[in-house]
Amino acid sequence: MRTKKIAVLGCGLIGRTIATDLCRNYHVTSIDNDMDRLKEIENNHHVETIKADLSKKENVKDVIKDFDLVICAVPGFMGFETLKSIIESGKDVVDISFFAEDPFELDQLAKDKNITAVVDCGIAPGLSGIILGYHNERMQLESFECYVGGLPLEPKLPFMYKAPFSPADVIEEYIRPARMVEGGKIVIKEALSGAEIIEFGSAGKLEAFYTDGLRTLLKTMNIPEMKEKTLRYPGHIDIIKLLKEIGFFSEKEIEIGGAKIKPIVAASKILFPHWKLEKDEKEFTVLQVIIRGEGKRIQYDLYDEFEEKTKTSSMARTTGYTCTAVAKLLLENDFNRKGICPPEFVGEDQECFNNVVSYLNVRGIKMTRSEKPII
Amino acid sequence: MRTKKIAVLGCGLIGRTIATDLCRNYHVTSIDNDMDRLKEIENNHHVETIKADLSKKENVKDVIKDFDLVICAVPGFMGFETLKSIIESGKDVVDISFFAEDPFELDQLAKDKNITAVVDCGIAPGLSGIILGYHNERMQLESFECYVGGLPLEPKLPFMYKAPFSPADVIEEYIRPARMVEGGKIVIKEALSGAEIIEFGSAGKLEAFYTDGLRTLLKTMNIPEMKEKTLRYPGHIDIIKLLKEIGFFSEKEIEIGGAKIKPIVAASKILFPHWKLEKDEKEFTVLQVIIRGEGKRIQYDLYDEFEEKTKTSSMARTTGYTCTAVAKLLLENDFNRKGICPPEFVGEDQECFNNVVSYLNVRGIKMTRSEKPII
Lengths: 375, 375
Fold this sequence. Notes:
Two copies of one chain form a homodimer.
Chain A: E1 5-9, H1 13-22, E2 27-32, H2 35-44, E3 47-51, H3 57-63, E4 69-72, H4 79-88, E5 92-95, H5 107-112, E6 116-118, H6 127-136, E7 143-152, H7 167-175, E8 178-182, E9 185-189, E10 196-199, E11 205-210, H8 217-220, E12 225-232, H9 236-246, E13 254-256, E14 259-261, H10 263-275, E15 283-293, E16 296-305, H11 314-331, E17 339-341, H12 343-347, H13 350-362, E18 367-373
Parallel strand pairs in A: 1-2, 1-4, 2-3, 4-5, 5-6, 6-17, 7-12
Antiparallel strand pairs in A: 7-15, 8-9, 10-11, 11-12, 13-14, 15-16, 16-18
Helix pairs in contact in A: 1-11, 3-4, 11-13
């Protein structure tokens, strides 16, 4: 049997981790517009490379035409258009770009092309949805709670935070109203609201606040209570609230010496050096999912750290390996539902769920599960 | 005897207060480039007005040529050049512009023109120097301490502060290293350092921190210990330190969409609406001066509030009336030392000192004095 060929679009932190994982079993080609990134991966791994500007539709279509599966790991702002091009090309795809648009707008197109397009396939959204999908298929659920965060192991004042992705995207989490489900209805929570300190085993006490991370679950699930919160070291949120209150995150232009500037753009630039994750800086990822239903409370806990041996960040491991676990399901025909498939669809199948969990396990990403009756 | 004619350059908050005070006894003309300001003062007071762009040297010289005394109340950035033009025109002057340059650079010029130029003639610098000059002439001083602040009576979070002058000038106080005298030597304190909470009678507990306010005293006094601190509500400085630490007060340009922007300029714009003193907003001024020497500790305390009847801010009252008190000394020939005269020179004379204190007293600005032996 011939080795399957995979195109990984985007060779950033996550895209690189995905490519180097998949290249152990498949024929992998990394595609990016940055030669330095491509050279680094080519020199160190069994990965071929193609230099291409993926912001151009025709380039995307041209470059993927000989592949069996595409991984879309481009920046969020170009994710939707890139995914559309992939689907139009009739290729199965796993997407990790976390674009802001509604992926179901591409559902009919994907079905017409008879392909599988798994979207939002990271840790949360991603693994959290796979877990929820598994249980939702098997019991009547009353509530879903998800807590997730990626943090530096040695936090520095004042922010005690490093962003594994761009500061602009982090600030976006701090200003976008967050959609939760209460009493079966979608409710809008103010950004940064709902702050509470929670203890997370190895990660210690962290502060959780509402973020708009339920995404597809708002459409696909029929559960009366659902909430998602992001985690930071205690104190971080107070500083962010202060900066926001002062107006540093405002999108209303101010005039400075003739130039029109959005405060949020200036703030993003000023915050960048504080939030930049240094090369090989140690960080960790926490995920906690709590599901209630039929008198039971089921809790999943994941704690993962930067991998010293391969110098791979925990955020790249947890996000990237969930993506590659699902890629393997598609490549081995274990998951072949057509159309747009968020992670919760993948988790519905017992075998798929088990495969993802054991795939992560093999890579050192352990998840504990505890179950107790609700009294 | 003909009524003396005074030109008041600048019709801002302080300039207006000076003009309306002096017009009770003298022939006053307000000069500014802003017609609205001029119309307002002309309609409500016995003040004549001239519209002129005082940033042009020839305009300054032209406009003041028929006056007996000039008050220089222009913005700080144009203060030095304006004062120079006034001195070149051979006019006595009291300056309240608080320019950054060293006024003694104009000393020889003022002496050559045989005129009196009192500079820095507000509350602190200003009244504080008059007090110090008085005692320094009469006893051997060991130390001088000055605490000063202008604050809103109803502080609002997060800053609990309103600026009676431009936010850019306030931020300047927060970034400029502060010069103190310790053991007879000038020492440089980091901006915002030396924070301590002190109780000030009616004003309650305030936080004091080093600012670069000793100015001419660094040259004119020979006192082994001198310090100056500015006052804010407790908590304000922590927020300012945070913003500074993050980089919002940096003068190093960043690039935003092609435009080069200094973070401090953007921050100043963003902070402006928070720090803007509203029309007729109630505020107060605190001044405490502590002088030690010859076994005595002498303390002066001034507390003054917004004047409801005339809608005059306390900052304008305390600054403006010190200026007009000294203007009266010049006009009545009670002070006629030639050259550049900082307030400490004015205070040296017993009669001048007494006149200033009683002038303020008549306008409701009371100062208490307490003296005790140092044990």
